[in-house]
UniProtKB/TrEMBL annotation:
This is Lipoprotein. PROSITE patterns: PROKAR_LIPOPROTEIN.
Length: 96
């Protein structure tokens, strides 16, 4: 029974905020989806004939017209408790 009480504080710590840098990395995908839908199409041939596959991702931020930089900032603040250190449009790898 005492082991449960020792694990409880560790579980609470795992629910806490993450670093701003990690939050920025995690929030980039949400900002990309706010900028526009993403998808892919695959076409090929197999032993049973033609094969096609597709995937389309659309999120509510895009559908409601939210600004990707605002989506990014809100996401970072909710995950880390701090404002982003680098704005979305200056993030490495951002292609809006």
């Amino acid at each position: 029974m005492n082991k449960v009480f020792l694990l409880f504080p560790l579980l609470l710590l795992s629910c806490g905020p993450i670093s701003v840098e990690l939050a920025e990395q995690q929030c980039m995908e949400r900002a990309r989806l706010a900028a526009g839908p993403r998808g892919e199409i695959a076409i090929g041939a197999g032993s049973n004939g033609p094969v096609t596959a597709y995937r389309l991702e659309i999120n509510s931020d895009f559908l409601t017209g939210r600004d990707p930089s605002q989506v990014f900032e809100t996401c970072v603040v909710s995950k880390s408790g701090e404002l982003p250190r680098t704005p979305l449009y200056l993030q490495r790898g951002w292609r809006g």
